[in-house]
Amino acid sequence: MKRHFRVWRGDESGGEIQDFQVEVNDGEVVLDIIHRLQATETPDLACRWNCKAGKCGSCSMEINGKPRLGCMTRMSTFEENETVTITPLRTFPVIRDLVTDVSFNYEKARETPAFAPPPGVRPGDYRMKQIDVERSQEFRKCIECFLCQNTCHVVRDHEENKKAFSGPRYFIRAAELDMHPLDDRTDRKEYAQASQGLGYCNITKCCTEVCPEHIKITDNAIIPMKERVVDRRYDPLVWLGRKIFRR
Ligand code: SF4
Ligand code: F3S
Ligand code: FES
Questions:
Q1: Rounded to an integer, what distance in angstroms lies between the CA atom of residue 35 and that of residue 52?
Q2: What stretch of H or E contains 244?
Q3: Residue 204 CA: which ligand 2 atom is closest?
Q4: Which residues in 209-218 are b (16+ Cβ under 10 Å) and which e?
Q5: Lower Cβ count inside 10 Å, N or C end of the chain?
Q6: Considering only CA atoms, which residue is closest to atom 3 of ligand 3?
Q7: What does the pLDDT look like over 147-195, one tens digit per residue?
């Protein structure tokens, strides 16, 4: 059966939506349709992908305005006569067609202080408890698709915030390291507040809604970090305790 597809084509200098009628078979996903277009009408259509199994995080795109993985979006999601419009991620600069330059995220990854165990701890010296492994396990499911980064309005609508705001993917990294019993380098919560722009987040939860790994980014990483930063700064008992123990 033929279906109506609209695909954005262009580069950093501009582009337009093009219309296609494409054959769709039972069980296919949006990435199959892009591959069919490449095999037929538009061999030069640029699209990043790798695993076709929802695990590499490469095929992020916007499908009918919603940030999604092309390889995990079944065509049966849409009504039979519904037009499917595919556009590149909006928050990052377009390279060509559906491929965007996501280097913003790599810069933020580089800025995040790496895991650092206390000096002198050698491999095998320390056995992590299962409970500590499980606490941060959820955050380690991240496939770095950057759909959350693309969706967050702090940078999606405000290019000027990109310098100060690391984004939800790096808040879960901060939370993960904060939960690690051997991470000794820095106070991750204070760092997130002071240097990653945690204060810009107003808990809209849009990042959580689009995460294909169903990581509860807002409830399990952002809100607990925000609460602990606030506790430290404004709880009089915590404040007094810090004063005493700092002496
Ligand atoms: Fe993708 Fe979720 Fe990781 Fe964000 S947290 S990069 S949405 S897998
Ligand atoms: Fe952005 Fe997620 Fe906060 S979408 S505003 S980081 S809750
Ligand atoms: Fe790997 Fe879609 S191709 S996540």
A1: 11
A2: helix 236-246
A3: 7
A4: ebbbbebebb
A5: C
A6: 52
A7: 999 999 999 999 999 999 999 999 999 999 999 999 977 789 999 999 9
pTM for the complete prediction?
A: 0.92
* Distance between Cα 222 and ligand 2 center (Å): 8
54 lines ligand 3 (CB under 6 A): yes
Instruction: List pLDDT tens digits, range 2-12.
Output: 999 999 999 99
Beta bridge partners of 18: 7
Kindly provide the ipTM of the predicted complex, given to two decimals.
0.99
**Protein residue whose Cα sits closest to atom 6 of ligand 2:** 168
Of the candidates 56, 93, 49, 67, the one whose C-alpha atom is nearest the C-alpha of residue 168 is 67
Question: Which amino acid appears at position 194 of this protein?
Answer: A
Q: Which of 51, 63, 86 to mutate to test the pocket of ligand 3 (most atoms within 8 A of CB)?
A: 51
Do the Cβ atoms of 225 and 177 come closer than 8 Å?
no
